[in-house]
Amino acid sequence: MNSYVELVRRRLEDRAANLLGNLEDLPEAQLRFTMRIFGDCVDEETHREMFAGYSEHLTEGELRTFAGDFVPAYSGYAVAELEEKKRAGERFEPPFLTQEEYQEMPVREKWPRIADRIAQVPPLQLRREIARAAMLFRPYMLSDPGFNEGVLEFSLYFDLLERLRSLPEARLREVALEIAAAIARVVEAGAAEEGERLLRGVRTTAASAAGLPADPERLLGPPMEKYPREVPAEFRLRALKNTLARMTLKDLRLSALVHLDLLTAEETRRIVTPFFSKFPSFHEMPSNGLRELIVAVAEGTDDRGIGYFLERYGSGRMAMSKPVDSIVWKLMPEQERIEALRRDNDRMDASMMSRHLARFLHSEREQLLADAGRQIALLTDARFLSDHGEILKVLGAEGGGERVKRLYDAVTLSCARMAGQRGEARETTYQAIRKAIADASGGFPCDHGAGEA
User: Fold this and answer.
1) Are 148 and 132 a contacting pair, CB within 8 Å?
2) In the chain, at which end, N or C, are there fewer CB atoms within 10 A of the end residue's CB?
3) Is residue 53 part of a domain?
4) Is the pLDDT higher at 430 or at 325?
């Protein structure tokens, strides 16, 4: 009969061969998830070595190339760890558990072993297990062997890991023992109401250790969002250049309009005017000129997007300034959020505010305002161009644009309130915002643009 080590070694090698054989068929998100799974099973020094040059913001082709080298290297590491841990026999408690065995073992089986040999568990593994404990949202997860990998889909897990890094080792072990005892009580209580209540206590203990004063379930976020969430500048510009290289002249013109829409008047003068001095008009600018213009705009501004002026209310991704960390944003008191939004507003000018306000008028439903394709299409809509010019003329012509700034501040306050609403209340607030803009700017009809949806 084959030994446990032989069976697992064969499984690890077969898995690596299967991954490499199907690498070309793996979608981008699956490539990143594979790196997360394996990265969660290496020690910190090995992680630095194996992941040198890696980022989730690499292109899909670059991710695939990286995986082609990484997968066999990781497989060799996992086999070596297996042989080392089982050298004295098949033992399944710390310190003889491999990092893959920690990842595969159900919570209810793993935590008693951790508690029994707490001094033998490395600090990194304790951080991983405490971070997972903070994401135990339902009692069935304690028995689910897929739970440990499942949490890796969410950036919250990596946020928790990073926050736990500053916790002293002695305190890590204290927290782990508290969690182990609480999990034993949850297992005893089962899936009944008492089990749910006790499990909330497990999350509270783990989250508090990581410095989160709220239930992590509120902070979960979407699965497989890229981490870190903020794209490093070098990757953002490189991805942009790669995309521009494949664009037709028509698409380049539209992309240029999108980038120009993100600028204040002063930024336009500083960044764009030199390009217009080289060409008779925008529409006579050749492909290379448009590419250079777009890259210059991207290099001269922080990361911006056409929908960030709306997205910022729910996520903290600001329109004009550095984003607020999503966890920090969700935990901020409303007044602090408003102050951050107003600081973001201070970097806008009356012209940009007028464009944003016109977008509300041309989006009879909030879903349309959040639709990037729809908002890009407005850039070639003659009525939209006329309307944001009219808003600027009516509200921004005097006093340094103070009237449009006051209206924009009122809209900001209403949108901040709307971000916490749902259903009919949210729709009512949205329509009230549109009406206030229409009334203040000269009586535009509130269903402006409705026929274009």
Assistant:
1) yes
2) N
3) yes
4) 430
The structure tokens listed for 453 are 């949806």
Could you tell me what percent of the chain has a pLDDT over 70?
97
The residue from 85, 117, 136 where one domain ends is 85
Cβ count near 275 (within 10 Å): 17
CA–CA separation, 87 vs 96, rounded Å? 9
In the predicted model, is pLDDT for residue 428 greater than 70?
yes
CA distance 129 to 121: 10
Q: How many structural domains comprise the chain?
A: 4
Which residues have CB under 8 Å from 215's CB, separation 6+? Answer: 200, 203, 204, 207
- Domain's final residue, options 219, 250, 282: 219
Give the torsion sign (CA, 292, 293, 294, 300): positive
pTM of the model: 0.84
pLDDT tens digits for 349-398?
A: 999 999 999 999 999 999 999 999 999 999 999 999 999 999 999 998 77
Long-range contacts of 141-148, Cβ-Cβ distance < 8 Å, separation of 24 or more: 141/107, 142/106, 142/107, 142/108, 142/183, 142/186, 142/187, 143/106, 143/107, 143/108, 144/106, 144/107, 145/104, 145/105, 145/106, 147/106, 147/107, 148/102, 148/103, 148/104, 148/105, 148/107
DSSP code at position 269: I
**187-197 residue pLDDT tens:** 999 988 999 99
Query: Within this chain, do residues 324 and 448 fall inside the same structural domain, yes or no?
Result: yes
In sequence order, the 6+-apart residues with CB closer than 8 A to the CB of 279 are 285, 286, 289
Residue 275 to residue 295: CA distance in whole angstroms: 12
> Is the per-residue pLDDT at 112 higher than 60?
yes
Instruction: State the residue range of the domain holding 13.
Output: 4-85
Spatial contact of 369 and 360, defined as CB atoms under 8 Å apart: yes
- Give the mean model confidence (pLDDT) for residues 424-432: 97
